[in-house]
């Protein structure tokens, strides 16, 4: 019996995929739910191991658990294990299996998302001075294009990619949003309903197991390794377009609780605030170090997650520091400059710490 053949079991009973085990003579009824069937359709479209893995894990999570699906569950687990091995082997060899993988640089990686012609490429060019193709027709961008956005003494990596559209979703593209630190949704204020257009792009992400969220209170692993939640901010482009101010009000209401920043890539309105918005959206902080007995000089900071402690900073600097750390002095968020603090003191952006072993 050929693999992946649908067999009608009996009148009134659902169609069920035959087992991929060629030795199985008769497929057992699985009573597969609509979500499993939808994910199976996504799996057929996936091309890279990075794309297939989260879909297979989600399929294993939602498949009905009964005797009729035992072999299907076993097959899913086998495929997950095989793909995990392939991804690990690719990582060790230094190869690049995912065409949309961009190595992370700077303080964090932000990925631009939006509908066709929203102005993602124009935004990347305006903020990073990267050489990108900008045109008035859709789907100008077909490959990921990174650029570095300066903010004070750090750089933020901003990555542009093809528009999010159901009928033009390139293989491997969704993984760019799974692994980034921040999604920057670009809304087009020149269209009649920018909120609806932006929600269409979000729907594509959600259908592919990526949930845009407003803050770290919502972000992180929701309990399923297959589905991820990503911090997201909205940049409303083309505020200079006729009637844009009125549409901006509707966009802000439609995007709540996500924050919305209005800009114009054409005349520069609002662009000066975006590097700070991106940095704050990353959910990170900068920490500087000072050697005991030496004058502090502001150099390249360590980048830590918001809420990090002195001990977390010590681990980032060197593992031996964390093991031997006794106390620390801090300049910045403490009540007094040079105040002694404990290992669990929570740091703030811009703090200077002096570690004592």
Walk me through this protein's architecture:
The chain folds into 3 domains: 6-93, no CATH class; 109-282, Rossmann fold; 284-356, Beta-grasp domain (Ubiquitin-like (UB roll)). Strands 3, 4, 5, 6, 7, 8 and 9 form a 7-stranded mixed beta sheet that branches. Strands 11-10-14-12-13 form a 5-stranded mixed beta sheet. The chain is built from 10 helices and 14 strands. The protein has helices at residues 34-45, 49-62, 70-93, 120-128, 175-179, 194-207, 244-255, 274-282, 310-317, 319-324, and strands at 6-7, 16-17, 109-113, 145-151, 154-160, 182-188, 210-213, 228-237, 260-262, 284-289, 302-305, 327-331, 339-341, 351-356. By secondary structure, the protein is an alpha/beta fold. Mean pLDDT is 82; it is low at 1-28. The protein is globular. Helix 1 (34-45) runs antiparallel to helix 2, helix 2 runs antiparallel to helix 3 (70-93) and helix 6 (194-207) packs parallel to helix 7 (244-255). 32% of the residues lie in helices and 20% in strands. The N and C termini lie far apart (69 Å).
